[in-house]
Amino acid sequence: MQYSPLGSSGINVSRVCLGSMTWGKQNTQSDADEQIAYALEQGVNFIDTAEMYAVPPSPETYGKTEEIIGNWLSRNQQKRSDVVLATKIAGNGLSWVRDGGNITRQTVIEAVDDSLKRLKTDYIDLYQLHWPNRSTPHFGRQWPGTLKFTDVNTQEQQASMLDILEGLNECVKAGKIKHCGLSDDTPWGISQFLSLAKEHNLPRMVSIQNEFSLAHAKDWPYLIEQCVHEDIAY
Question: 193-224 burial string, b = 16+ CB within 10 Å, else e?
Answer without folding.
Answer: bbebbeeeebbbbbbbbbeeeeeeeebeeebe
